[in-house]
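Researcher: I'm preparing a figure for a lab meeting and need a structural model of a single chain. I don't have an experimental structure, so a prediction will have to do for now. The sequence is pasted below. Please return the structure as tokens so I can convert it later.
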Amino acid sequence: MKNKSSKSYLDLNNWNRKEHYDFFRKFDNPTFSITANIDCTAAYHYAKERNIHFYPLYLYLSLKVINQIEALRYRLEEDNIAVYQTVNGSSTVLRDDHSIGFTYLPYNKDFDHFYYEMDQETEKVKKQTGLMVPEADEGVIYYTAIPWIAFTSIKHATASTMNQSIPRVAFGGFFNQNNQKLMPVALDLHHALADGYHAGLFYTQYQEALNHPEDHL
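Model: Understood. Here is the structure written out token by token.
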């Protein structure tokens, strides 16, 4: 198992969302999804100026923001809520034959280190076959990118055996509007662990990071 993250457990009896947790965790479909258009103009030009690929930059900034929001590091473990100290990424990769594989992307506060590791992992998966499902604990974020479509919503495939408390982030295709480069970003969260407020924190802080990437790397 890669990068097993340290974790603690939430004191449910003294949690102000205990009733919300008890209510939503019983739902057959307990997740909610929000899609918002994010302004990537400044970050896009920053990547061009540094001569780096844009995808690792905006993925990294999203992962950094997620690690700063405690509720997005919560995971359900039977009747407990684990709080991961750090969460990592797992992203889809498109190969030349149009099949996909999965990468495992350990979070690192040093962006240059993260960028190098992501590049190495991506190239490795591109040369292999099959899904390449990473062996990792649940301290992870599921990422996907659909750069051909500026989608307005997205529905992920799920299985009843999956831990629905692992957040999912999907990046859509860029489009230009009023001299801005916009990108749809979808966030899926488990309603027993988070509300719209926490999604709002993510989008607000993510937009700030993209507006001033040089201050967040």
